[in-house]
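call fold(seq) -> tokens
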Amino acid sequence: MLSDEKIELRMAELRELSATYAKAYATKCYLEEFKKSKLAILQKKYEPKHKTTAAQEREARADPEYRELLDALREATEQSESLRWQLKLAELAVEIWRTQESSKRAEKRGYGA
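ret:
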């Protein structure tokens, strides 16, 4: 059986992990939204040279600034997903522990303890 101290230590770790996940997820969401703004800003930059919207968008998407943003979004998504799965695995571990404890209690009742 887990001691109260070990449970509280694990809960503190999970609280910290969830705070880190929240920040990573917020960064990912921000970058997803900023991607739209960045594309518009870059299209405006290419407007004098390219008259059609399609040409402006093509140039904007090829711009190094836009590609840097995509790289940052990829990294933010990777970090966010990694943290999300760590939390999910922690939840599964709790469910497994609860099931095991329930089984132990049922077994004790079966023996009249």
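The chain has one domain: 15-110.
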